[in-house]
Design brief:
Elements lengths: L8 H12 L3 H14 L4 E7 L5 E6 L9 H4 L11 H5 L10 H7 L2 E7 L6 E7 L2 E2 L3 E3 L4 E7 L6 H4 L5 H18 L4 E6 L2 E6 L5 H12 L7 E8 L2 E8 L11 E5 L2 E2 L3 H11 L11 E6 L5 E2 L10 E2 L2 H20 L9
Parallel strand pairs: 1-8, 12-14
Antiparallel strand pairs: 1-2, 2-7, 3-4, 3-7, 4-5, 4-6, 8-9, 10-11, 11-14, 12-13, 15-16
Helix pairs in contact: 1-5, 2-7, 7-8, 9-10
Bound molecules: adenosine-5'-diphosphate (ADP) and magnesium ion (MG).
The site of magnesium ion has 5 residues, from helix 2.
């Protein structure tokens, strides 16, 4: 047996990357979430070769000060939490301070940023974990991150990347879910230089519903009911599809907890139960639902990719969801769907 050794930092980051960075869309998720946390109102995502060649995310958010640039790509360095107490109340999408360190350890990475107070922008580059000194650059206030040749130094991972089309489809799906999460933010997505999607900032409910229709289909607004209910510190809003909007696959289910798309057992069970007597066996409901609650009531530090959450009061959340949705759907059972959303 060899002696015990401490691992070099690049290797530690590459191991961490294995947990969160599964494919190009995982990189896009981390970068866009950073832009959202930075208060961006406009986020542009440019992809080349399904993300294998290039992923670029550009935002007009708060930017990163020159002195902080090396920290942005250091592991366990974050501006979002500073204590265990903060972790219990975390309202930002990120908090682990690991995404940029991970991504930059498995790609050719560059970040250009400028804060509102700075005259000039600065650029740093990281190549396979090695950080180069910051240089002045051109950039409006905000941040651009460029990730080239993802997994170029991790052949085992690279092998798992699928066809360009498949990887881009994952990115497109992710952008759809993010566009529904933050309808006040403008999103643009391009692939190989061609614009694929433009979601302008939605200023009113009609515009939000247009986004919903783009993601769930043009008929969804007519085949859904608006839900809005608050009780016991929980607030649920959104649209639940009528049985006529149901699908053979569970591919139109968007459930957000404090703005974060989650796949949760408790939520899934409550929704399934609420739909139980209006849907045929084998059919899946379509919905876009937003649950808001005190961040202290939900633990997001369950999985590195944060798809899962743990509610402190699971029973309460379950019953609130079930009752709210069951009641909304009761109208369809009585055959008196008077006012579908439009
Ligand atoms: P986390 O998001 O968990 O803090 P990241 O590795 O994703 O960790 O980012 C590290 C830090 O870099 C963030 O805490 C933030 O201060 C800064 N940062 C990253 N991306 C951006 C961005 N687009 N705009 C402004 N600051 C950013
Ligand atoms: Mg982050």
């Amino acid at each position: 047996m060899a002696n015990i050794r401490a691992l070099p930092p690049e290797l530690i980051n590459q191991i961490a990357a294995g947990e969160v960075i599964e494919r190009p869309s995982s990189v896009v998720k981390e970068l866009v979430e950073n832009s959202l946390d930075a208060g961006a109102t406009r986020i542009e995502v440019d992809i080349e070769a399904g993300g294998a060649r290039l992923i670029r995310v550009r935002d007009d958010g708060g930017g990163i000060a020159l002195d902080d640039l090396p920290l942005a790509v250091a592991s366990h360095a974050t501006s979002k939490i500073g204590s265990f107490d903060d972790l219990e109340h975390v309202a930002s999408m990120g908090f682990r301070g690991e995404a940029l360190a991970s991504v930059s350890s498995v790609s050719r990475f560059a970040l250009v940023s400028r804060t509102a107070g700075q005259e000039a922008a600065f650029r740093i580059e990281v190549d396979g974990g090695r950080l180069q000194a910051a240089r002045p650059a051109q950039h409006p206030p905000g941040t651009s991150v460029e990730v080239r040749d993802l997994f170029y130094n991790v052949p085992a991972r690279k092998k798992f990347m699928r066809a360009e089309r498949t990887e881009f489809a994952h990115i497109d799906d992710l952008l759809k879910s993010l566009s529904l999460a933050r309808s006040s933010v403008e999103f643009r997505l391009s692939h190989n230089g061609k614009p694929v999607r433009v979601w302008k900032a939605a200023r009113d409910e009609q515009a939000v519903l247009q986004r919903v229709a783009e993601v769930l289909g043009a008929e969804f607004p007519q085949r859904s009911l608006r839900v809005e209910h608050a009780a016991a510190g929980l607030q649920l809003s959104g649209w639940v599809g009528l049985p006529t909007a149901s699908r053979a696959q569970a591919d139109a289910q968007y459930f957000y907890v404090n703005g974060r798309l989650v796949r949760d057992r408790i939520v899934a069970h409550a929704v399934r139960q609420a739909y139980a007597d209006v849907l045929f066996h084998g059919r899946h409901a379509a919905f876009v639902l937003y649950l808001e609650l005190d961040p202290a009531g939900v633990d997001v530090n369950v999985h590195p990719a944060k798809h899962e959450v743990r509610f402190r009061e699971q029973r309460l959340v379950h019953d609130f969801l079930f009752r709210t949705l069951h009641e909304a759907l009761a109208q369809t059972r009585a055959g008196q769907v008077a006012s579908p959303a439009h």
